[in-house]
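Margin note: ligand = cytidine-5'-triphosphate.
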Amino acid sequence: MDSRLRSVGVLLAGGVGQRIGMDTPKQLIEVAGKPIIEHSLAVFQNAPEIDEIVVLMTPGYTDRVREIVDKGGYDKVSKVVEGGASRTESTWLALGALGAEECNVLLHDAVRPLLEPRIITECVKALETRSAVNVAIPSSDTVLVAAPGPGGEVIGDVLDRSVLRRSQTPQCFRLSVIREAYERALADPGFAGRPATDDCGVVLRYLPDVPIHLVPGSEHNIKVTHPLDLRIAELLLQLAATPPISDLPR
Ligand SMILES: Nc1ccn([C@@H]2O[C@H](COP(=O)(O)OP(=O)(O)OP(=O)(O)O)[C@@H](O)[C@H]2O)c(=O)n1
Ligand SMILES: C[C@](O)(CO)[C@H](O)COP(=O)(O)O
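Resulting structure:
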């Protein structure tokens, strides 16, 4: 009998893309010939470690996602569910859409269309022995803490870059662990006033004894947030589709 836990890829696509400022949610914008969300869907669909995909989509756009799923033959998609008002609400709704059986959950920003298969492999491997795993890269910039000063901001602190990492997705957990963290967060009246910007932040705050193992991410695994990111994603996706020079026929 195969005792491997099932792995569910959750695509968080419930946002509206305010910072990119377009009429439709940014995950539906076409980049390198496909909507951004479809690039992310294809990565999960083609990953042998992923057994099932659940999509959380902006209310009003779930039918559009179902069309993309049907047309592209993404047969690992089991559910397309409406997302919530914040990323954490969408995660909570995703957890509600999963059954009671223990599994691995890989929570991925749908707007990170350049997720590499290697990262999924390493995350699922790490989940064989750990219950919480995140993907992160070192910071190549020096990171400052801004403080209010006379007439504007001043530097409050310069952080030690050697211990700083930039958090990416997928953020990966045993279902029972991420559910427990969110149940505690929702029971805390203070959570709404100090929301978390990612799922690891919820686990760290509400299950501080659970170590969150780090897997190396990638500079390519960008989050399409601002208009310039669309151009960068386009170029990187084109590059990824181009064989390296050594593989070209001579
Ligand atoms: N209510 C929300 C908000 C965000 N997300 C998802 O979380 C990921 C990262 O969020 P972000 O880049 O902030 O997306 P938006 O919220 O759409 O962008 P903005 O903050 O500029 O409005 C995206 O794939 C987004 O669709 C979500 O599932 N549900
Ligand atoms: C989850 C995340 O992508 C990790 O870097 C990030 O925190 C999402 O932030 P956003 O403001 O919701 O884009």
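The chain has a mean pLDDT of 95.
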